[in-house]
Design brief:
The structure is a single chain. This protein is mostly helical and 236 residues long. The protein starts with a helix and ends in a 9-residue tail after the last helix. 35% of the residues are buried.
Amino acid sequence: MSRSILARPLAWTLLALLLLLLWDATGLDLALARLAGTPTGFPWRDNGFLVHVMHEGARALSWLLLIALVAAIRWPVGVLRRLQRRERAQLAFTVLAGVLVVSLVKQASATSCPWDLKAFGGVADHVSHWAWGLRDGGPGGCFPAGHASAGFAYVGGWFVLRRASPPAARAWLACALAGGLLLGLAQQLRGAHYMSHTLWTGWLCWTTGFAVDALLRLMWDRSGAAAGTTPKLNES
């Protein structure tokens, strides 16, 4: 596998990590939460559109899209026909892997949600999610933003599509980023997450897609070299 293929996404990954660390250092999370929250809670927490459409509906749609990607491994449509079957399997697996990674980190988190803070009528103190081992007095389990992964988990598709169709890969990435940000914003308005939670979810999903692609490409290159063959891009 050519190092040049890895160089650009690796640079983006590290740059995004640096920007995330700088964001955490600004302390803007609480300031932005106060724009939607009041001392008695978050007025938009039970908003019908945010709850039933942006939360429940979007989550269901995301799972339906994943099911469609799994079906497309056997019955591809559109641009997916340009991918090998194993690449179509990678696409579906990458989405699921992104969701699982975010879920595992979330389960281990001691950070509580904004709506649990004393500043918004809850019981928890504001503690940085980097303060590992320090409890904030709330239920925890709120970092990173699990719901945003319903959109961000699809960013890994860029790695799969970029070799077959760069324009389709860019469009796929733009849609996944926009979806994740919109879902994250909806949860922020409800008091369920901070901005950093959403941004870290995007980074974790991107990095998961990057890692899966790099590992699989290395495996396929080695197996191809051992067999003395180079698979065709449209081989299925």
